[in-house]
Specification:
mainly alpha; two-stranded antiparallel ribbon; 7 helices; transmembrane; coiled coil; transmembrane helix
């Protein structure tokens, strides 16, 4: 009987499956539309939250500016505002240049201790008119090393009276007596003979 019915109504038997497919497609379309509506709603809520956040930030900035600006103007009027950073003096700038120069030749030389012979020699360089006029780096290094020797061996106290003219603003080859420093024609110290000058202590590493 069933076979006979299928043979008699072949069109109805074939149309059952397309109807189900259409129904499923309709359900899928409805679900997709629902998801899109939900996504749009969420995006609108996010946009609204962002707008409220930016509005809050803008209001806060306006309040801060309205408080800070009057205070700053009052401080300037009273002269209590922050003072500008002091410009380094020429002496400190020159010291920095010489420290870089000296440490490039003598990496172990330090200047942290203000009472050290090295620091005293650097301070002397900064005040010595002859050194300040020099353009020869090797000449500056040589004068520094001799000044370190002077301070490290008690020059200001233990050396002979008036220190034989050491650290005077003239060529270092002219310091002391003739036999104290032997130099070549380029004022490079070749030998030292300081016996009897009253040195006290050991030789600094700058002399070797």
């Amino acid at each position: 009987f069933i076979e006979a019915a299928l043979v008699e109504n072949p069109v109805d038997a074939v149309q059952v499956e397309p109807d189900r497919i259409d129904a499923l497609n309709q359900l899928l379309d409805e679900e997709r539309e629902t998801r899109e509506q939900l996504a749009n709603r969420l995006e609108q809520e996010k946009s609204s939250k962002r707008r409220r956040l930016w509005i809050g930030v803008a209001v806060a900035l306006i309040l801060v500016i309205s408080i800070i600006v009057p205070i700053s103007m009052v401080s300037r009027g009273n002269g209590t505002g922050p003072s500008p950073s002091p410009t380094p003096s020429p002496t400190s700038q020159q010291d920095a240049i010489w420290i870089d120069l000296i440490q490039s030749k003598m990496p172990s030389t330090l200047f942290d201790d203000p009472e050290s012979p090295q620091r005293q020699a650097l301070d002397w360089l900064s005040q010595d008119s002859f050194t300040l006029a020099l353009s020869d780096d090797d000449h500056v290094i040589q004068r520094f090393a001799l000044a370190v020797l002077f301070y490290a061996t008690g020059g200001p106290i233990h050396w002979k009276p008036q220190n034989d003219g050491w650290l005077e603003p003239k060529d270092e080859c002219e310091w002391g007596e003739l036999e104290d420093l032997k130099c070549n024609n380029d004022s490079v110290v070749l030998d030292m003979g300081l016996r009897g000058d009253g040195l006290s202590g050991g030789l600094p590493k700058e002399i070797g």
